From TrEMBL:
PANTHER family: RING ZINC FINGER-CONTAINING PROTEIN, SI:CH211-59O9.10. This is Zinc finger protein. The gene is Contig16877.g17976. One of its GO terms (molecular function) is ubiquitin protein ligase activity. The keyword Metal-binding applies. Pfam families: zf-RING_2. Coiled coil: none annotated. Residues 31-70 are annotated as: Disordered. GO terms for biological process: ubiquitin-dependent protein catabolic process.
């Protein structure tokens, strides 16, 4: 599961680098003399690439209007180019974009290295699976009391499915339909992962049930028996890890449910303790409007007067909604509405 997650992150990083690479390629087409005489063009392209990168990360680069108002980000390299150019002349502008290009080239190279690393690992896994299946098939159809060969073949079949799903997910990146629907892409990834990892867990449990070290398999099929034993041991660790993750998620879920339940019970207690009355202009002349909805009170309208201050009145329905939302404090002064209840 962690492997899939890290691969996904790596692929995202690589896609970013490819886009940056395109910006560099466009910039490099500019003549060197143009770089010195009119660097605004290349600087703008790099700014654009940087801006897009920041947007993807959920950050905002300051707009030019904001800069004029003094809202500058000190660490923004591109903005610093503009500021320095006013003091140090045009040479600084020419050198900084070149430095940026070198930096971006290095990032692209790192991205390409990561892709190669992933591809090498997948190839290695593929060859190992093929080799393992060949070894199992070479043993023929020998019976030792448990279906050890069938178990191993199905296990390696699941491994193939895992590699195949990673390949399918890569191909999905090239389909525009999926690129515009990030939610669908994410759901497909999760569904594939759950199906494959779930099948593997079930198969490990089944293997554990049928495997018996006192039978004659270790004598008749020693290589396959030790192979199955090793895979079961690895599988146990995997199951324990998944068990811990599920237990943590379950604890968090139960904790959240209990918290919500406590809130609900507390809200009911607070609602029961509210002192409701009818609005009367002579009695409440200092408070004419509800601080929650900002509407004026009508004569004989049902209101609630809190204990914190006799001027802190609210419409009955307004303060009830406020309490049901999980609050136990006066909206105006933040004093507890009911000091005996904690929610
Ligand atoms: Zn109100
Ligand atoms: Zn109050």
């Amino acid at each position: 599961m962690n492997q899939n997650h890290s691969e996904e992150e790596l692929m995202e990083a690589v896609r970013e680098q490819e886009e940056i690479n395109q910006a560099i390629a466009m910039s490099l087409q500019e003549d060197q003399s143009q770089l010195i005489s009119g660097p605004d063009n290349i600087s703008d392209k790099l700014k654009q690439a940087h801006h897009e990168r920041m947007q993807r990360k959920g950050l905002q680069t300051p707009a030019s209007e904001d800069r004029s108002q003094g809202l500058q980000v000190q660490n923004d390299v591109f903005n610093s180019v503009d500021i320095e150019s006013q003091h140090n002349g045009i040479e600084n502008i020419a050198s900084n974009p070149l430095q940026e290009i070198r930096e971006l080239r290095r990032e692209v190279q790192e991205g390409n290295d990561r892709i190669e690393q992933i591809q090498r690992k997948r190839q290695c896994d593929l060859y190992m699976n093929i080799g393992a299946i060949v070894i199992v098939l070479l043993h023929g159809n020998q019976d030792c009391g448990i279906p050890i060969q069938s178990w191993l073949l199905f296990y390696f079949g699941i491994q193939f499915a895992q590699l195949g799903s990673a390949h399918i997910l890569d191909k999905m990146e090239d389909i525009p339909y999926f690129n515009t629907r990030r939610g669908l892409k994410k759901c497909s990834k999760i569904a594939m992962m759950v199906v494959i990892e779930g099948s593997q867990c079930i198969w490990i449990i089944y293997g554990n049930m049928i495997f018996n070290d006192s039978n004659q398999c270790f004598e008749k099929l020693p290589i396959l028996s030790y192979c199955m034993l090793a895979l079961l041991i690895i599988g146990y660790f995997q199951l324990v890890l998944y068990g811990i993750i599920v237990a943590i998620l379950l604890c968090l879920f139960i904790g959240q449910c209990q918290k919500n339940q406590r809130k609900q019970i507390g809200s009911v207690k607070i609602l029961r303790s509210l002192a409701k009355t009818k609005y009367n202009y002579q009695l409440f002349s200092d408070a004419e409007e509800c601080a929650i909805c900002w509407n004026n009170y009508s004569e004989q309208e049902e209101i609630v007067k809190l204990k914190c201050n006799e001027k802190h009145l609210y419409h009955s329905s307004c303060i009830e909604s406020w309490i049901k939302a999980g609050n136990n404090s006066c909206p105006m002064c933040r004093e507890p509405i009911n000091k005996e209840v904690t929610i």
